[in-house]
Write a structure and sequence with these properties.
Layout: E1 11-13, E2 16-18, E3 22-24, E4 46-48, E5 65-68, E6 71-74, H1 83-94, E7 101-105, H2 112-122, E8 129-133, H3 149-162, E9 166-170, H4 178-187, E10 192-195, E11 199-202, E12 204-205, E13 210-211, E14 217-221, H5 226-237, E15 244-246, H6 253-262, E16 266-269, H7 272-275, H8 279-293
Parallel strand pairs: 3-4, 3-16, 4-7, 7-8, 8-9, 9-10, 10-15, 15-16
Antiparallel strand pairs: 1-2, 5-6, 6-14, 11-14, 12-13
The structure holds flavin mononucleotide.
Flavin mononucleotide (FMN) binds near residues 25, 197 and 225.
């Protein structure tokens, strides 16, 4: 019997070449070092940092998380040490990992903060990509940039002029048409889009008649949001040509495959890290097994290959 070659799991996201499509989602894996004794970080396709802002942020009032049916609600509020401390104290560990490093950034007050953040990251050659978080539901704003196609286009265009690094735009599910926003990001020069961020949600303690979160409302994540996320990846895939990094409730290889078949080139594992820190590595093994079982040599051959003619 002819034995198949080892399956090829490598994918490209703009200028990034990932040895496998599995990364960890922003905000659910700290700055990597927190997981170093539990996970062989070098095996990941890429690492995405917690979102960094210009100044340090203390985040929202506790409680910041609560469990929900098949998921969780969080209102961390972008707690982070600020860009300078990140570069001085967190980056040295991350740059030794030898995997593509994606730094997530956000503005607190004005879009111009993105310019300063990008200029600072331009001085860090080991940062392979910048993820523009324009979709965080946990900061006090009437409207997210990711809820407005013109705003998305303007912000990504300005960022594109400042860097030749791979530029990823993180999108919100709290929109009417994800395809429209994804197209705006593509037309503005984004190399890829990442979706979805958390869905706005609220939990109430009926005995106290108070919100369960200190910030009252938060973002829903985990398996509860997976069907929403898969549909949004599929819709975006039908609208844009740039790669999609899919996420939302990925727990195992089968759920990762749903995203790949719907059109995601890579996937991010978020809430699953809190239940099983090794989930992402197990997903990589599960993808290899699926490929071997189905005699798939190259993972790219199933990306976006949803067969909608079958029942
Ligand atoms: C506790 C927590 C913190 C998060 N922090 C961030 C963040 O800082 N930046 C960001 O872009 N997304 C953040 N997210 C959203 C995740 O990156 C991801 O988009 C979302 O949770 C959906 O994936 P999941 O269902 O696998 O968790 C956070 C999610 C959780 C649960």
């Amino acid at each position: 019997m002819v034995s198949l070659k080892k399956p090829n799991l490598s994918v490209n996201i703009g200028s990034l070449n990932l040895k496998n499509p599995v990364m960890v989602a922003s905000g659910t894996f700290g700055y990597g070092s927190e997981f170093k004794d539990l996970v062989d970080l070098k095996k990941l396709g890429a690492m995405v940092t917690k979102t960094i802002t210009l100044k340090p942020r203390q985040g929202n009032l506790p409680p910041r998380t609560c469990e929900t049916p098949c998921g969780m609600l969080n209102s961390i509020g972008l707690e982070n040490p600020g860009i300078d401390k990140f570069i001085n104290e967190k980056l040295p560990f991350l740059q030794k990992l030898g995997i593509p490093l994606i730094v997530s950034i956000a503005a607190e007050e004005t879009p111009e903060e993105f310019d300063i953040l990008i200029n600072k990251l331009e001085g860090c050659p080991t940062v392979a990509a910048i993820e523009l978080n324009i979709s965080c539901p946990n900061v006090q704003k009437d409207k997210l940039i990711a809820q407005d196609p013109q705003g998305t286009f303007a912000l990504v265009s300005a960022a594109r002029k400042l860097t030749r690094k791979c530029l990823i735009t993180k999108l919100s599910p709290n929109v009417t048409s994800i395809g429209e926003i994804a197209l705006a990001a593509q037309n503005a020069g984004s190399d890829a889009v990442a979706l979805i961020n958390t869905l706005g949600g609220m939990c109430i303690d009926v005995h106290k008649r108070t919100p369960k979160l200190g910030a009252w409302v938060g973002g829903l994540s985990g398996p509860a949001i997976r069907p929403v996320a898969v549909k949004m990846v599929w819709e975006a895939h039908n609208k844009i040509k740039i790669p999609i990094i899919g996420m939302g409730g990925i727990m195992d290889a089968e759920s990762a495959l749903e995203f790949l078949i719907a059109g995601a080139t890579a996937v991010s594992v978020g809430t699953a890290n809190f239940i099983n820190p090794r989930a992402s590595l197990e997903i990589i093994c599960g993808l290899e097994k699926y490929m071997a079982d189905n005699r798939i040599q190259n993972l790219n051959s199933i990306i976006g290959k949803l067969d909608i003619c079958k029942d």
